[in-house]
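Help! Submission page says 'invalid entity' but I think these are all valid:
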Amino acid sequence: MFSMSLPTLADVARAVGVSRTTVSNAYNRPDQLSKQLRDRILAAAEDLGYPGPDPVARGLRRGRTGVVGLVYDEPLSYMFTDPAAVLFVTGLATVFDDAGTSLALLPRLRVDDPDAGVLAEAAVDGLVSFCEASDDERIAAFVARRLPFVTVDGGSTRAACRVGIDDRGGTRAATRHLITLGHRRLAVAAFPRHHHEGRPGRPERGALRPARLGGIRDAVEDAGLPWDSVVVESADEEGTRREAGRRVGGRILDRSPRPTAVVAMSDELAAGVIDAARDRAISVPDELSVVGFDDTPTAASTAPALTTVHQPLVAKGETAARLLLDGAPDAVVELPVELVVRESTAPPP
Amino acid sequence: MFSMSLPTLADVARAVGVSRTTVSNAYNRPDQLSKQLRDRILAAAEDLGYPGPDPVARGLRRGRTGVVGLVYDEPLSYMFTDPAAVLFVTGLATVFDDAGTSLALLPRLRVDDPDAGVLAEAAVDGLVSFCEASDDERIAAFVARRLPFVTVDGGSTRAACRVGIDDRGGTRAATRHLITLGHRRLAVAAFPRHHHEGRPGRPERGALRPARLGGIRDAVEDAGLPWDSVVVESADEEGTRREAGRRVGGRILDRSPRPTAVVAMSDELAAGVIDAARDRAISVPDELSVVGFDDTPTAASTAPALTTVHQPLVAKGETAARLLLDGAPDAVVELPVELVVRESTAPPP
DNA sequence: TTGTATGCGTTATCAA
DNA sequence: TTGATAACGCATACAA
C-alpha cells in the first residue's frame, strides 16, 4: 500500500510507543534523551519514511521561518540584467548564506497591486526593500507586521532602518570634475521616470533618484552656471539598460548645439551613451566626455574605460543583510562614494 | 499600552462580534459574505492593526507556502559571479515572478553537512537543484519529503525530473571544429574537480561535468587521434572563474610542445585562457585557437570574440521553473546546443 | 449569509 | 529521562 500523506511526528511516536515530545526531542534536543531511545526513534522514522519535522509547522510553533525576503519593484529579470543590482544581491546573499538563512526573491511589487498583497503574504522573518520608487506606501503592508525591515537606496523613504549611499555627493563630484575640465554644455542621461499610474495623491510620474539629479545641480550652480542650460534626458524602459542608454545618448548627441559632456546616472547608461557616440563617429573623450555611476565591471570594460563614481555595492548588500540579522531597529547607514577618473573624460574640444 | 504580540484573526472576530470563519472569509472568500459586513471587518482589522492572515499559519493549514527553493553547492557569491549561472537564474526568476511564486535561495549545501539539513528544513513547495556535483545523495533528504523537484545539469543524477543540455554533443562539435581546422596538439581547460572530503563510498575527487570531457574525447577518437595526446588541466577555485582560467591557461601555454588549441569548459575559463595568451604575447587566433562553452555575454566581449558552444541558459531556467510549477512528475528535457564560430579560432600556425 | 467544530504538525512548559 | 497538555493562527467541511 501507499499512504497518500506523509507520516508525521505523531506516527513515529505511536510506532515507537513514546510521546510526541520525545520524538521531537530526538530531533531538536538530542541531549534530552538516552542515546538508545534516540537511535530507536530515528530508526523507526527512517523505516516509516518520516522526513523529519515539517518546516512550516515548526515555523508556526517557533515563530520564525529562517527566511528573509527581498522585494524589488521591477521585473526580477531586470535585477539580474543590471550589474549593479547583481553585485548588491551578491553582498546580501553572501551574508545570509553564511548565516544559514534563505533569501527569498519575492514576486515583484506590481503597480496594480496597491495593497502589496505580496508583502502581506510572504512567510519571512524580515524584509529587504530594494525598490527604487521613492514612495513607501506599499511597504506599509509589511510594516504592519512589525517585522524587521531594511530599505536600500530608499530615496525619500522615512523608513527607520535604511542603508544608502551619498548619491548627491557622487554626482556632484562627477559634475564638478567635468566643469573643472572646462565643459560648459552639459547633459544628463537620467533614469526612466517612475509610474504611479492612477494612484491618487501622487504625481503621475516622479523622477527616479532625485538626489543624483540634485548633486548635478549643486555642482552646476556652485560653478555659477545656469541650471537650465543643462539638458536632461530620461531613459525609457525597453530592453536592457545599456540599450536604453544608447537611445538617450542618441537623443542627447543629436541636439544642437551638441553637449560636450554627459553625466549618466549609471554605468550601463554611460556605456550606452558611448555606444551612441561610436554610432555617430564622435570620439570619446576627444569630442565628448562621459561619466558614469556605480563602477561596475562594465566601467572597466568600455572603450575608453569609464570615469565613474564608485559605490561599494557588495558592501551595501552585506550591510543591509547584517542590519537585518542583527535586528538593528533604526540604523541609518550611508556608505561613501568616490570619483574614479579613467579615460572617458577630457577637456572639451 | 503596547501589546507585545500582534492581534490575530480571532481578535478581529471578537472585536466585530462575528466568528473567526467569517473573518477568514472576509480575506479569502469575499463573495461569501455581504459587502457591508466585510467592510466592517476590514475596518476593524485596520483599527486593531491586524496585518492580515499569518502566512505561516496559512501555509500550515493549506499545505503550501508559495515558495520554491533553489539549492546550489557552491557559495552563493559564486552563482552571481558566473554569468552563465546568472542567466539561468534569470530564467527561473522570470517564470516564478510571473507566477507570483517566491524563489528562495537556500543556504548552500555544505560538504560538511552530509544530511543536508538545509533541504530537510526548507519551507518550500518544491526545489530546483542546481548542483554541479554529480552525486545526489544529499538530495535524498529532500526527496523523502515527496515534494516536486527538478535537477538542472545534474550529470549522472538519477533524478526523475531533470533538465539539461547536450553537453557531450557541444564539446564534441567544438573539438571537431578545431580538428577540422588542422589542430593536432589540443588542450582542455577543465572545471575544478569536486571535493567529497571524507565521505565514505565516494571517490575523493570526481571530475566535474564528465560529459563535456567525454564529448572532447569522442571527437578526438573519431578523428583517429590518441586521447592521451590531449593535455587536460583542471582549474582551481581561487577568485573568479576568469582568474582561474588565466591560471590554467598559463599552465597549458607554458608546456612544450605548446598546444595550438584549447577547449575551455566555459566562456569564463576561455576568457581567462585568452588573458593568459595575451600575458605571453601569444596571438589568438594566429598562434592559438580557443573555444568556450555557454555563449554568455563574455563570449562576445573578449578580444577576439570567442568561438563557443551556445546553450539556451535563460530557457533552461524557464523550463526548470515550468516543470516545477506544472508538477511534471518525471519529465526529462534536454535542450540543444549549437557551435557559434567567431574569431578566436583559426588554422594552426 | 453566518457559525461550530476540528485538525494542520509541531514545540514549550511544566510536571512526573 | 520521559510524558501530558496547551498553544501556534488559521481554513475547511458541514450544519444552521
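Support: the input was valid. A stray whitespace character was the problem, and the output above is from the cleaned input. Chain B touches chain A through 52 residues (CB under 8 Å).
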